[in-house]
Structures are given as structure tokens and as C-alpha cells.
Amino acid sequence: MKVPAVVCNKRTIESLIKSGAFDSLGHHRRALAMIHEEAIDSVITLKRNEAIGQFDLFAGFEEAESEASLSIEIPDLPEWEKKDKLSFERDMLGLYVSDHPLQGLEGLLAQHAEMSITTILGEDGPQDGAIITIAGMITSLSRRIAKASGNAYARAEIEDLGGSIEVMFFGQVYGPIASVLAEDLIVVVKGRLQKRDDGAITLNCMELSVPDLSEGLHGPLVITMPTHKATEAVVTELGDVLRTHRGNSEVRLHLQGDTRTEIMGLPVHLRVNPSPSLFGDLKVLLGPACLDA
Question: Which residues pair with 263 in a beta bridge?
């Protein structure tokens, strides 16, 4: 009798782990990736023996021992860093699933970009030849040499939270920034839009800068307020306080009712610069417990 082919090989199982397919088991992906080969080997050996008729005559009497022999101890390891975890997801699936590297930086990107990439690629997007500015992360980068001229250039895929676009770096633009370009780098690019006959859309870079995103790496500011306090006068004053402390951090308002709490994300123009001065103003307006959530 032939041994059945193994449907899922080790590489397949590893890919499934990295993509999050086994998250429901309750173990970190890093730990599962470490022991998956050992687990597969132990099961394959058992199934191979069963396929050729080598059953243990005493298996029925030693069920507990048999199960124990197939058990694999899963180490208690911390999860991969967020950057690595998301990188694996993208490599395996072509997209991010559990999170996005730019999550929490929406306001900062919006401050630098004239429009989102989704808008640029849409039917009503800017015309061919338009000069626009985008902000996003370099998700892929390839460096090449032009056959005709021998000049170096680069091709990159830049992604924001809504989509991605191909960006080209040529000639005098590419030279000064060649050492700066790298995958996972968040950049602001000003360039000329090129729409080809085949429908492809490319941005030819004219200027590139790397924004300071340090303020946006912190979590959102959460303000808690009982619903009975959310009068028109208080809400207006709250808006005045937030505008006085403009910045890059997202603000979320938790409206606490008797039975449930409603969570509201405030608009981009109400993002703030967290500071003792802001915290003091909020506590004077809403009470000392407004920032405890």
C-alpha cells in the first residue's frame, strides 16, 4: 500500500501560521512557528505507520500514553514585533490583516498629503500630468540601471491606509535620495502623475522628504464624559480647548451613558498635542476623571 501524500507540507503550515490562520488556537504565531516542524514530523510518522498497517495492538489500552506521545509543548514566547508580524502577513497574503503599520498616523499623513492614493486612482482623480503630493510607506523597492543611458533609477510601491501607487525616481531626483530610500520608510512625495494607455497610473517623483512622525506614534488621547454633561455649551467649549492645543494625536471621546458607552473618533482638525497644559484645561472643563480611561 502506498503512503498517502502529505497535503500540507511544512512550508505551507509555516505560511498559514504567519498569515494568522491558527490564531484561534490561542498561541502566539512566533511560538507556533518554532515548533511546527516537530509537530508535523510526529504526526507524519504516525500516519505513515498506519497507512502500511503497522498499528499498535495495545493502542486501545494505552490511549492516554499514545496521546501523550503526540503532544508537543508550545513554548511561552513573546509575539513577533508588530513590524515583523505585519510583514509576514503581507508576504503571505498580499495585504495586512491584524493591523496596519500606518494605523494611528492618519492625521499626520493627511497633513502632508494633498489627497489619498484611493482618490488619485479613482475615476474622478486628477488628470494626467497633474502635480500632486502623497504621503505613505514604501512597501517595495527595486533599483535598476537604464539600458539606453546607463543611469540608475528606482521603482517603489508607496501605500497609505487606502491603497498603493507606483512611484518612479529618475535622474537628478534619484541621485541625492538614493541612500535614503528603503522599504518600510514613511515618506512624502511630490510628483507628476502619468496615466498610461494600458490604464496604469504612475507618479514620477520630483521631491521627496521624510516627515517627523514621532508625535503620531503615541496612542490616541481618550476623553471620557458622561452623556448628561454633553450639552451644546460644553461641546463647544471642548472644541475650543482642543483647537487651542492643535497637534497630531487622534482624540477619541467616550460618552458614558447609564447602560453603555459610545465611542466617537473626533475629526482630524481636532487632533491635539498632548501636554500638561491641555490635560489641565480638560480637567477644569470636564472634571479630574475625564482622562482616566
Answer: 254
Cβ-Cβ contacts under 8 Å for 208 (sequence gap 6 or more)? 169, 173, 177, 180, 181, 187, 188, 189, 190
Q: Which three cell numbers stand for residue 11?
A: 512550508
- Cα(73)–Cα(27) distance, rounded to whole angstroms? 11
Q: How would DSSP label each residue in 167-192?
A: EEE-HHHHHHHTTT--TT-EEEEEEE
3-state secondary structure of 165: strand
Helix axes 29-51, 10-19, angle to 10 degrees: 150
Q: How would you classify the pairing of strands 201-209 and 186-195? A: antiparallel
Q: What sign results for the dihedral spanned by CA atoms 129, 134, 138, 140? A: negative
Q: Which amino acid is residue 146, in one-letter code?
A: A
Q: Are 160 and 183 in contact (CB under 8 A)?
A: no
All domains in the chain, ordered by first residue: 10-93 (no CATH), 106-214 (2.40.50.140), 218-291 (no CATH)
Q: Per residue of the chain (293 residues), what is the pLDDT tens digit? A: 343 444 457 778 887 877 777 888 788 888 888 877 877 777 777 667 666 665 554 455 444 444 445 567 888 778 877 667 777 777 777 666 676 777 767 767 777 888 889 999 988 889 999 999 999 999 899 999 998 888 999 999 999 988 899 999 998 999 999 999 998 899 999 999 999 888 899 999 999 999 876 555 556 888 999 998 889 999 999 999 999 888 878 888 999 888 888 888 888 888 888 776 788 888 889 988 888 54
Quick one: which of 11, 19, 16, 18 has its CA closest to 37?
Answer: 11
This prediction has a pTM of: 0.55
